[in-house]
Amino acid sequence: MKKKTLKIVAIVAGVLLLFIAGIVLFILSIKKDQKATVERVQDVINVYSEFSDSVDKFNDIRNELYSNTLDNVYITNIGEMDSAIQVSFKKYEDIVDEVNKVTDKLSKLCGNIYFTDSRARTKCESYASVYEQIVNAFVSDVKSYNKNIDEYNDYQKGLNTNISLKHYDTTKKYIDYNNDKKYEGKEE
Q1: Residue 99 scores a pLDDT above 70
Q2: How confident is the model over 158-176, as a mean pLDDT?
Q3: For the segment 52-68, what is each residue's pLDDT rounded down to a tens digit?
Q4: How confident is the model at residue 12 (pLDDT cuts 50, 70, 90)?
Q5: How far apart are alpha carbons 61 and 29 in whole angstroms?
Q6: Domain map of the chain by residue range?
Q7: What is each CA distance from 158 to 45, 78, 144, in whole angstroms?
Q8: Can you give the pTM of this predicted structure?
């Protein structure tokens, strides 16, 4: 009888130890998951800060491009200003590429994850719209400038000169990055 009671106690103790071990592993897993979530939230916040800095640079370069050149371009002086404008557009496109790189980082961090932390959630919800506006504004600016080039070339053709300017070439096109069926930042 003592052996039978001892066996039952040993079995109950073993089951109890397994149950306690399961609970401990579950708690450790939750803590590990919480730590990973906190780290990911911090990564989103840090990368968004980098994204925000790139957006500020984009706005500065775009404002500079308009105030220093595009606002002062007329059919009479576009030929003289074209090479400087082409250089400015290259600098402008470079910052769009920089924003694109940071956007890729945010896209990987945010993915299809719902963050309970409002700081990360807000950043993950807003970056796509901002990126879309940036790319579409750039493409609109290039198209507008190239339209001015066409008008200049037509004007020169009417004067029977052999003067013509080249378009600013870019591979960028209008995008709907956040898939909302709207092209934010597109101007036409």
Answers
A1: yes
A2: 89
A3: 999 999 999 999 999 98
A4: confident
A5: 47
A6: 39-158
A7: 56, 16, 21
A8: 0.82
